TrEMBL record:
<protein>
    <submittedName>
        <fullName>GntR family transcriptional regulator</fullName>
    </submittedName>
</protein>
<dbReference type="InterPro" id="IPR015421">
    <property type="entry name" value="PyrdxlP-dep_Trfase_major"/>
</dbReference>
<dbReference type="InterPro" id="IPR051446">
    <property type="entry name" value="HTH_trans_reg/aminotransferase"/>
</dbReference>
<dbReference type="InterPro" id="IPR015424">
    <property type="entry name" value="PyrdxlP-dep_Trfase"/>
</dbReference>
<dbReference type="InterPro" id="IPR004839">
    <property type="entry name" value="Aminotransferase_I/II_large"/>
</dbReference>
<dbReference type="GO" id="GO:0030170">
    <property type="term" value="F:pyridoxal phosphate binding"/>
</dbReference>
<dbReference type="Pfam" id="PF00155">
    <property type="entry name" value="Aminotran_1_2"/>
</dbReference>
<feature type="domain" description="Aminotransferase class I/classII large">
    <location>
        <begin position="21"/>
        <end position="252"/>
    </location>
</feature>
Length: 267
């Protein structure tokens, strides 16, 4: 996303994220006029934007008619705990939220269909700016998807997938808990990955190297950081394409490489 903005000659300003999501006070102190957020399951931390932060963010956007929020509703379909959280776009009273989503995870990546919901006051600007552009998605694919949704099949499909991914998330987190205080994790309320924190004196680079030497590729959080910090080594652990048995085999194998021992028996 940052590259898209940069390539279109837009200045980007990193804003910190904590356990409640985007630090809105830091946003207010910046000179940003557009906030790009993934409030349902922030990537890569997995944080869900709290209700209080959502209200504060909407108030920030409402404070200036030139302020906008781009809401990328990443992973919103797959929430496993608590009540469904309304989108910022649904909460917005001032036409300040541009809503983006896709069917990449909910259906399949090869479909290549995404959509955008614009505030009414931006529609004329959009039509004028994008007259030369046309959708590259075949019309037949669009009609099939529209029929799939109109018939209620999409909702039923999501319910089935949510149950499958909830079981996978439970398998993963239950297994991780058996390693006790050696590790911790976050971002397990939604989505198809968790953020794994390793409590060790070793660095993230050292752990990545050890895993690679055993034929295991892991992605560290440092890859996504704008400013390095002193937080423990953290890794994105995705499970979307894995079976529950894959998960049960993969985690012990990785932790054996890192010499991390279980402290309890998984439930």
């Amino acid at each position: 996303t940052k590259h898209v903005f940069t390539e279109n000659y837009r200045k980007t300003i990193p804003i910190a994220v904590d356990h409640e999501g985007l630090d809105v006070k830091a946003l207010q102190r910046s000179d940003a006029s557009i906030a790009y957020v993934t409030p349902s399951h922030q990537f890569p931390t997995g944080t869900v934007l709290s209700a209080a932060r959502r209200t504060a963010l909407l108030n920030w956007a409402a404070s200036n008619p030139e302020f906008f929020i781009i809401e990328d509703d990443y992973d919103s379909e797959f929430r496993y705990r608590g009540r469904p959280i309304p989108s910022l776009q649904g909460m917005d009273k001032g036409e300040n939220v541009i809503y983006l989503s896709t069917f990449t995870k909910s259906l399949m990546p090869s479909m290549r269909i995404a959509y955008m919901v614009l505030p009414p006051r931006l529609l004329d600007t959009y039509r004028q700016a994008f007259i030369p552009y046309s959708s590259s998605v075949p019309r037949i694919d669009q009609h099939i998807l529209a029929r799939f949704m109109a018939d209620g099949q999409f909702s039923r499909h999501l319910n089935r997938m949510r149950k499958i991914y909830r079981r996978k998330m439970h398998t993963l987190t239950n297994l991780l808990k058996s390693y006790g205080s050696n590790i911790s994790f976050s971002g397990d309320e939604a989505g198809m990955h968790v953020l794994l924190h390793i409590h060790t004196t070793r660095t993230e680079k050292e752990l990545i190297s050890e895993a690679l030497q055993s034929g295991i590729k892991v992605r560290g959080l440092d890859t996504y950081k704008v400013t390095p910090d002193q937080s423990p080594p953290s890794f994105l652990i995705g499970f979307g394409g894995l079976t529950e048995n894959d998960i049960k085999r993969a985690i012990p194998k990785l932790f054996d490489v890192w010499n991390i021992k279980k402290t309890a028996i998984p439930e």
